[in-house]
Design brief:
Helix content is 42%, strand content 13%. It has helices at 18-27, 42-54, 85-92, 96-113, 133-136, 144-160, 191-203, 229-237, 259-269, 281-291, 296-307, 317-326, and strands spanning 5-9, 29-33, 62-64, 66-68, 71-72, 118-119, 164-170, 186-187, 209-212, 216-217, 244-246, 274-276. The strands form three sheets. It has an eight-stranded parallel sheet. A two-stranded antiparallel ribbon has the order 4-5. Helix 4 packs antiparallel against helix 12 (317-326). It is α/β, with parallel strands linked by helices.
Length: 327
């Protein structure tokens, strides 16, 4: 069984530098992730995806955050402009599951056409009145059952379109009142109250990949979830998630210390793969060393995630779009 470095890396620009090519060939990360800085045109994006995969000896997944609304890396003319998920779900009402399935299926076909085959969605954090604006309209609702049903529809739409879904932010980010890109959110709710947040992740624990939440659950640990062995144990044992767990971006300011320490603490806590997004070359070298190579159950989960990818179903995009617009 082939091994990979326990990392997913970003890259700096529209094309790979010689240094990046050499580094990726040697480090052999599990996958890659794209951002706006990597996107100019459809041919350029496809060429970049080909170059990234050409650096490693496996069909590396290439991820993106394509939720719709504020968090959407591909925009017209490369892809459809989508309204924020919460706005879409509320407008669709009783048709929300079908609308979000169609939206995700169309989105998946657009991603695959550009060379991307994994999307960091569904986001099944349960919204609350106090949820920070950085997250609020990215959610599907404030009812765990609705969030679960829409989350399943999003995951199914992506998979039917040939794109691997990544559930986030496990085990739940909805109670955060701070932006984890800038600060470390702290949640004081009891374990019993947190069951509400955990419920969608439990119901969707068969999704092959999940992304952690950078926040402290004070009832469980003093460390952020990404660095907490206790929270990782809860994810595995109580929530029952046995897919590949990747961190949220470890360069976010919710975490502290050098990136090498952030990476090693993530792996020690029980994360399988470290996500490092900013493409800073020196940081990537440090993260690669600190993260190590996937082995044991982590390697098994990595191969299971890769095996979960499937060719896109043949569909009539015009008909899907017409049905979507009819709601």
């Amino acid at each position: 069984m082939s091994a990979f470095r326990a990392t997913i890396f970003g890259c700096k620009g529209l094309t790979l530098s010689d240094n990046e090519r050499a580094f990726y060939r040697e480090a052999r990360p599990f996958g890659f992730i794209l951002f706006g800085r990597n996107i100019e045109s459809a041919p350029q994006v496809r060429a970049l995806c080909d170059a990234l995969r050409g650096c490693v000896a496996h069909e590396a997944p290439i991820l993106i955050d394509q939720e719709g609304g504020r968090v959407q890396r591909f925009r017209p003319p490369l892809a459809t402009e989508w309204v924020p998920p919460l706005e879409q779900v509320r407008a669709a009402g009783v048709h929300a599951e079908r609308v979000m399935y169609l939206r995700s299926l169309i989105m998946a076909h657009e991603l695959r056409a550009l060379g991307v085959d994994a999307n960091c969605a569904p986001l099944v954090d349960v919204a609350r009145d106090e949820t920070h604006p950085f997250l609020k309209n990215r959610c599907y609702g404030d009812n765990p059952d609705l969030v679960t049903r829409v989350g399943r529809s999003v995951a199914n739409g992506l998979r039917d379109g040939g794109v691997l879904p990544v559930i986030k932010h496990i085990p739940g980010h909805g109670r955060a009142v701070a932006d984890s890109h800038l600060d470390l959110p702290r949640v004081a709710a009891s374990v019993e109250a947190l069951e509400n947040d955990f419920a969608p992740f439990t119901a969707l624990n068969d999704i092959p990949m999940g992304m952690t939440a950078h926040l402290v659950y004070e009832a469980l640990d003093t460390e952020p979830a990404t660095h907490s062995a206790r929270v990782m144990g809860l994810i595995r044992n109580q929530i029952g998630f046995d897919g590949l767990i990747m961190t949220d971006d470890i360069s976010m300011q919710a975490l502290s210390g050098p990136v090498s320490e952030r990476a090693s603490k993530s792996i020690a806590a029980g994360c399988d793969v470290v996500l490092h997004c900013n493409g800073e070359f020196d940081e990537m070298q440090d993260v690669a060393t600190a993260s190590g190579v996937l082995s044991g159950l982590g390697l098994i989960r990595a191969h299971a995630a890769l095996a979960a990818r499937q060719p896109p179903e043949t569909v009539d995009i015009q008909a899907l779009t017409a049905e979507f617009k009819a709601f």
